[in-house]
Amino acid sequence: MQVSGGDLQRLRQLNSLGSIRALREASGPLTVSELAARTGLSRNSVIDVITGLHECGWIAEVEPAPGGMGRPAKRYRFRADAGHVLGIDIGVHKVLAVITDLAGRTVSSGRVAVDPHAARPERLEAVWRAVDAALVASGLSGTDLWGVAVGSIGVVNREGTVTRVESLPDWPGVDLAGHLGQRLSCPITVENDSKLAALAEQRLGVAAGVSDLVYLHAGRRSGAALILGGRLHHGFGGATGEVGLMEMTGWRTMATDLENSPAARDAPPEDAARVVFTAARAGDPAALAAVDAYAHHLALGTAAMVLTLDPELVVLGGGFSRSADVLLPALRRALEPHCLRVPDIRPSTLGEECAALGAACLALTHVDEHFFSPDGSISRPSAPRRLV
Amino acid sequence: MQVSGGDLQRLRQLNSLGSIRALREASGPLTVSELAARTGLSRNSVIDVITGLHECGWIAEVEPAPGGMGRPAKRYRFRADAGHVLGIDIGVHKVLAVITDLAGRTVSSGRVAVDPHAARPERLEAVWRAVDAALVASGLSGTDLWGVAVGSIGVVNREGTVTRVESLPDWPGVDLAGHLGQRLSCPITVENDSKLAALAEQRLGVAAGVSDLVYLHAGRRSGAALILGGRLHHGFGGATGEVGLMEMTGWRTMATDLENSPAARDAPPEDAARVVFTAARAGDPAALAAVDAYAHHLALGTAAMVLTLDPELVVLGGGFSRSADVLLPALRRALEPHCLRVPDIRPSTLGEECAALGAACLALTHVDEHFFSPDGSISRPSAPRRLV
DNA sequence: TGACTATCTATGGACTCCACCATAAGTCGG
DNA sequence: CCGACTTATGGTGGAGTCCATAGATAGTCA
């Protein structure tokens, strides 16, 4: 429990924040009475608070609802369009940039394919192209952005430096915050892509509201991320969910083993997994064996995390989650002998944009700091001028 | 971030809580000016707040400090002696009860040895004897207690029921809260003993202030517990830290393997481990091999948790931690090949009372709810009358 | 048109925090 | 021993915030 307390102005701040939060989380606009009920304040105080917020431009008045008894009540909504944030996902094959409003709704996006063997400068250039595409599509400029978060493969430490990558030899040490800071003047956060995908699923996707979950990235790369106590668990050096590094789990080779299965029928590597899953769906014995072997190894690493954390939910994400109808039952069977209680397992719902959306969610966490100026008064919605 | 806000009375509550917290966490008594600096309030407001707290009996005035310039300032301290809590650790061989004041300082304790094969009623009877001994030693009666927490071996679920035990066949399903509630009328919490030991080390012991840590119980039984984000991680069904259930770690047999080592020289089982560690300390090759084998298995499970969570610290607790000078370097060596970064490893400092002290810490978490009556005004220190 | 309902607006009161100033109670130097 | 200095105390008044209450307002419904 965090005790804040303080000034009378601070009390007003807290009540303003409570009202903003209620409006943000509500499904539609709210009347004064509804707000009073949700915040626990009296009618009168709510009016004081919202007139302040209204004058500054944080909330907008909406047409009264038609029908109903009594005098029609004014309705207010949070002005999610008052600002925007940018989420970027830098993958091996692509860069994806997503711009959302303050409610996390996608406004525009830009996608740029990248050669898996592209060198660092080329990849960084692709980042700008994806960002510019998203900016153009939204009609915004870089100075309109309130916050940016970037997802990268590899281990990202507390300072935002990429410290360890398997797939991209020249990627470790890249200064993403510095690179983006050349043209963007808002706060920039760097985080691992699987962690951001987990965050997106917890905020917007299949794990909405779940406070303890394990996110599995099952694809040509394998990884995991954790949400614990409702918050992304970053770890001391950012190296969480790296249970696949234990040789006994077989995570290092399980994806290529699947692709090299005879059931892949010499399909190109990027299609092999899909072919195997399709064959398994049709009942092909070799494909079923390959999927079971993959699920067995995935379950070993997953069991280690489940036995450690006893989460409420496991989310199956990554490219292979498109074949969840085949993979998920196999994974559940493979987990059974290892776990005391097999947690609920659900496939990811957000698809390819997952990590970029998670990045936007992370960037939004800084928005709360925009509501008040340093002197304690309510400030007007505006993008930050300088880097924090 | 938890937004509270509310009434003016609520603001006073928050400021009172802040002052109480500052006084509790301070090393000695504080003057009004010092309190003003720590809480961020003005002198005047602090005086208002503490006169209220003083009148109700939550804080006491202390002799002014001798020496120093200017008019001597009144000094105040938190009245930790205003109430007491009880922590109980029910082990296989013993029951330990500890009574602490509101600052967590031990006031008295009671210890009762129990036959490892004792049946449930006998063990529950031993609990009362330990509790009564602690009560007598402190001069308190059961109605003076503000809260009780009990640590038990086995998995304890969210409702406080013991769901799974390996060592005691008739223990699962025992209703500890109900049993203690027959004679105690304060809130009663039940938790796993290793979790409580972890909590004690984080609050009072070697892990003071560390927010992410793994606690290892290394002894004749093997277990683990987690502190994540500064809070005890309970898990969905209470089954966290159960990584030893994976056969490949060897946790199930590693302790008996150590005791059956030739280096134990036919010592009785309860002494065997100590004999082996002593021999290893002297350089005996067979003992060193046995310790290395034990450390190897312990490291397998630990690595799974470390790779999952990337904690700041690993605390080595349990009976074997008395031989940390031998075991800890072996554990560190065995972890090296598995981890990206071997975290800091420190031996437990609280010894046998660890779990009981942790229980008292857990019971203390409910004390904050005693400061104010339901109507919002400051209440007088008093033990709760009825079960919550 | 009138009864009913729910909201809006205005007034006054209670409470909390804060700035300011005079006073009290020590120490230090002569 | 006495006065200057330092620091804490206590009292007063002002500003800000929340709340209760009462009357005015704007719809629906019969």
TrEMBL record, chains A, B:
GO terms for molecular function: DNA binding; kinase activity. Transmembrane segments: none annotated. InterPro entries: ATPase_NBD (IPR043129), Cro/C1-type_HTH (IPR001387), ROK (IPR000600), Tscrpt_reg_IclR_N (IPR005471), WH-like_DNA-bd_sf (IPR036388), WH_DNA-bd_sf (IPR036390). Pfam families: HTH_IclR (PF09339), ROK (PF00480). Keywords: Kinase, Transferase. Residues 20-60 form the HTH iclR-type domain. GO terms for biological process: regulation of DNA-templated transcription. Belongs to the ROK (NagC/XylR) family. This is Putative NBD/HSP70 family sugar kinase. It comes from Nonomuraea fuscirosea.
